[in-house]
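Exercise 7 asks you to align residues with tokens for two separate proteins.
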Amino acid sequence: MTTRPAGPLVAVLGASGFIGSAVLRELARGPWRIRAVSRRPAAVPAGARAAVEVRTADLTAPGATAEAVRDADVVIHAVAHIAGDTTWRIGEDDTAAERVNVGLVRDLVDALAARPRREPAAVLFAGAVSQAGPPDQDVLDGTETDRPAGAYDIQKLRAERLLLAADADGVLRGASLRLPTVFGHDPGSTARDKGVVSLMARRALAGEPITMWHDGTVRRDLLHVTDAARAFAAAARHTGALSGRHWLLGTGRGEPLGAVFRQVAALAAEHTGRPPVPVVSVEPPAHAEPGDFRGVTVDASAFRAATGWRPRVPLAEGLRGAVAHCAAVCEGSPP
């Protein structure tokens, strides 16, 4: 660890994951002290201005979370249980997922409650727009009544409520940043995107059809991972204005998935030299959820007003970078 001027200590939990590693890269540009905590060692960003301490830990082990956040001024909780290689879907009886998605927040609250009396730490939780459940309207702005349907969203909402209850009790200053579909790659990326954009890019590069469970008109608000990381960095600078509630992140544009996938197919064809693979509709599987067939567009104006953040990466640029990265390194891509 390189010695640099002291600043606020930010503990990034899940610092080697897709979201956490992007947050680490963004924070490393600023005057912070960072404790990057994850099961496998996080990569220290090249040219980091911040002082970065890398710590490996299984946060589900007794006392591990308390040690990870010891003396932290800000905690960014970017840990989530991902079932399998490409999906966040989990079963209702998945106790391992519950231990990570809910139990770690409970451990975090207990750890901060046990600290000696001092200024409460700020905690930023990586939530999900889908916690609201299948939307009744075209645009979500954070005022919706939460009615999650899937086990993952139910667990994320339980964790968020634990955090906000602790905020109300004065244990900490907590806020949840609910993320839409996050995708992408930047030159400093160290973690693989396991989301739908990357999955479809790998299929197209391998010459396989891109499949949809609908007619392609279902919309998704697609946020580049770099913009998601910038949002957390902005939140870390404005914790006082954000604490006590959840905030929605998004671009304000709902992109028809059929058009997005056709663009992915065209970009993949530039790498393979073959015609674009077809984009086809297929019967949905048994595990499909109501939200899979509802469009999502996010109005993030409240968060933008509170922090000054705005998304900067255009969709076309983000898709091109994601496909190029998959062509270079993703498993299953042709040489």
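Second protein for Exercise 7:
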Amino acid sequence: MGNPQGSFIWYELLTSDLAAARSFYQDVMGWNIAERGSDLSDMDYRMIDAPDATVGGAMEITAEMREGGARPTWLGYICVEDVDAVLAAIVADGGTVWMPANSIPNVGRIALVTDPQGAPFYIMKPIPPADSPPDATSTAFDPEKTGHVAWNELTAADHQAVLPFYTRHFGWQPCGAMSMGEMGNYQFIKHADVRIGAMMDRPKNGPPPHWSYYWRVDDIDAATKRATAGGATILHGPAEVPGGDYITLATDPQGAIFAMVGKQLEA
């Protein structure tokens, strides 16, 4: 069985300096990012390889995208069975279309949208690679594997109000919550009985609603030091979270928010 509707299947970095971002993330994350774009389109789109699998892509923001307000960011792709039908349902439910549905040969059909509170994400019906079985499953999201996204976190204007939107379109369900004091609850979410992340309200004067993606690293302290040395701005952490992991939230040198999760190894 392939990825069911509602699965996170891909992650994409939009950046203002692709060469600099490639150098930064290869050093911090240990990824291998292609030196040149793939042959799948006329864009300079670089594949991001973790040690065991391809987990995403990176591209430089074009002049046209910049004029439309694009800025450095990470975006997630959510799998759907019918992009056009889901797109119409999202619009009817208060979402916004940032990029209309279009088909990429040998890749799939995609659209870029926002939820009703403005957090952007892609929806996609992928075409498995020619050398893969028709029911091939993406593993870009994997809670345990190094170099993969282990946690998807929505910072919303009102997470309780927007949760039903995601439940209706992607089948996600709440699965417990953790109090964060004055910041309110941290609402855990699951999909197909797997805890995939959480939702929370944005702090006052914080950034607009957005998704953050936590990439798993082997050693959170070492990765945070590499990020700092590479020009990242650390916003929070390393800080312990329930379960024994530690997290670091940062912006990369071009300004994209990124996050890491991992163990704190003894010196």
